[in-house]
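2024-03-11 09:14:02 DEBUG pipeline.ingest accepted 1 chain
2024-03-11 09:14:02 DEBUG pipeline.ingest length=174
2024-03-11 09:14:03 DEBUG pipeline.predict start
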Amino acid sequence: MTEIAEIAQLGAKILRQQALVVDDVHAADIRQAIDLMQQTLAGTQGVGLAAPQIKVSKRIIIVASRPTRRYPYAPLMEPTVMINPSFQALSDAKEKGWEGCLSIPAIRALVPRYQRITTQYTDQQGVLRTLELEGFVARIFQHECDHLDGKLYLDRVEDNGEIISESEYYKLLR
C-alpha cells in the first residue's frame, strides 16, 4: 500500500527549524521516513523533497530531477536519497533560476544559486558519497539542503518583483 504524507506548508514551524543529524541510517525510523519520502515525492510533480517537508526533523533529502508539468525541461535522473548532505561551491558564480516548492504552492521566484557544486552525503547503505552537480540538479540539491537549515527559497530572493504566481510562470513557459 502506498502511503503519502501531508506536505508541511509555509508557516509550519518545522520548516523554520534546523533538522537533526541522522546517526544511524539503518534505524527503523529512518528507513520509514525514507520510504514515506519516496512514496510522497512520487505522488507529486516535485523534483525533490526534504524530510522536514513531511514533518520529520532529520537531515534527509531526495533529489529526483525529471521532466514534469512544473519543470518541463528538467533533466532525467534516478531519485537519489541523500542523508546528512553538504556541499561546496566549485566557483563563486551564481545564476538566477525559477524555483517553486511543494510547501509553498502556487508561487514561483527567481533564486540565485551556485551553478556547480560538489556534494557529500551518506547513501541508504551507509556509504559516504561525493558527487559533482551542475545546473538544474545543483539547484534542486541546494533548495532541499536549505530546508534542512530552516530556510525557504523565498528567503534567497533578491528582488520581491521576481516573485510571481504559478499561473504567470506557466505563461512564461509558452
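2024-03-11 09:14:41 DEBUG pipeline.report The chain has one domain: 13-173.
2024-03-11 09:14:41 DEBUG pipeline.predict end
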